[in-house]
C-alpha cells in the first residue's frame, strides 16, 4: 500500500512533531508512508469563508500532489473532512470535468488518522505506552463531518499505562472554528473557557485531541489560567513507547508553582 501523509498547514507551521509522530507510528506498523513535497493547504479556510472560486487552484494543487496514492492520511478531522466533503463542491463549481474526476479519486481515499488505523489497517493496539492521566476532546469535524465515532477512544484504551477519564460535555464545541475565533472572539473565548473548565474538572494531566487547531485554542485558555494541564495530539500519544517515550510540551505553572516576586 502506497500511503501519503497530508500534514496540514497548522502542523507544518506550528506543530511539526505531530507530523513526525504520524510517520513514526505508521512505519512502526509496517506502512510505507511518503510526504509529497508539493502539498499545500486543503482549501478549508477559503471554503469556510465563502471564497469557493479562490479555492479552485488550491484543490487542484491537492489532487495533483496526492494523485496515485492508495491512501492519504492526515492527523486532522477538520482537513480530512474538507478533502472528503468540500473538494467535490469546489470542483463542481469550477466546471472543470477533469478536476471533478480527480477529486472523485482522492476524496474517498483521504482518511483521518484514527479511521486509517482502525478501518484500513484493522488495529486498535498500536503498541503505545503513555503512563499519564488523560482526557479526550472529540473535535467537531471529526464527530459531525467524518463520523469517526469511538475510534480514537478504542485506540487510547489500548495504550499501556494510560489512565483515561471522561470529559464532561465532551461533544460541545471548543469555540475555535478557524475564522470564527477571529470574527466572534467574545463567543469563542466563552466557549473555550467552558471547555477548559470541564478539562480541569477531570483532574487530567493531559488533554488529547485529533486536531491541533482545537488544542491550540483550548491549550491557550488552560495556559492563561495556569491550570498545569498539558495538551497533546493523539498521534503523539500513539507514537510513544517505553523505549521512545514522547512527552507533551511543558504546561504553564499553576499559581501555586509560580516563583515568589
From TrEMBL:
Residues 3-80, 134-218 form the Cysteine-rich domain. It comes from the Bacteria. This is L-lactate dehydrogenase complex protein LldE. GO terms for cellular component: cytosol. Pfam families: CCG. InterPro entries: Cys_rich_dom. GO terms for molecular function: oxidoreductase activity.
